[in-house]
Amino acid sequence: MKVAVVGATGLVGSVMLKVLAERNFPVTQLIPVASAKSAGKQVEFMGNNYTVVTVDEAISMKPNVALFSAGGSISLKDAPRFAEVGTTVIDNSSAWRMDPDKKLVVPEVNASVLTNDDKIIANPNCSTIQMVVVLKPLHDRYKIKRVVVSTYQSVTGTGVKAVEQMMNERKGIVGEMAYPYPIDLNVIPQIDVFQDNGYTKEEMKMILETKKIMGDDSIRLTATTVRIPVMGGHSESVNIEFENDFDLSEVRSILEKEAGIIVVDDPANLKYPMPKDAHEKDEVFVGRIRRDESQENALNLWIVADNLRKGAATNAVQIAEYLLKKGLIG
To answer: Which CATH architecture best describes the domain 2-124+312-325?
Structure first.
């Protein structure tokens, strides 16, 4: 199994390598890929060092699967080139997510849509992934009418530059800025650029991607996405209105039985999910489960996950695992 990781020297790419190793994905030949200026560098994987190669070199090696985390422009240009030589591309950028001919996949939710013809598969936005993992089993049981979500997103979602900005600010160092404002001791209610409708691109990603992944355009969703000065994971306050009434104990039972979800919901003992608890874990954590007393058939939840793992690298590797299990790559 030849596996290329495009963007191997980046924040998500390095986590992809880590997750591939931890989950024992059957890599027989690793092909770390990065820009020409990074070619020749070494990356470590499973105790061995591998030399970073260019995209052109990687394509000539015809990998079975390529995990992309190198930005949308690279994905648009190079994912089809890999696909042409028979490689299955799993892309972490937003480049292909809303392409009607490309599948947008969270394995726990809709892996069954994948076929042998899918050579470019889109990995959803990090904040969307953790939310739909929780929404899907509840939608199946009670049918969701509307979702209101506010996110509290880690600086790691922006990248190394943002982490450095926050740490510099904590040390009183003036350095390069990833954001238009200080992030430490602050909250920035903007993630990505603003659209004509007043929403940010991140907010519209959550709205549009959720409908596509869930396969239901009737779900109404509105989002406010916010950057906060934490590392470890994204948090979300989610309000869900159902068509049908629900029992809280049944809601908890449904979520507890779902693969990939851990319920942490014990207010009496101050137990609820936090980013520091989700850090370096692959599961989605849910707590603060309670009825919305202002609206019929409505539920409040608090959802937390490591945005670099389940929100990016782990979800991509899980897609590859599903493809392998079903004989769609190999």
So the answer is: 3-Layer(aba) Sandwich (3.40)
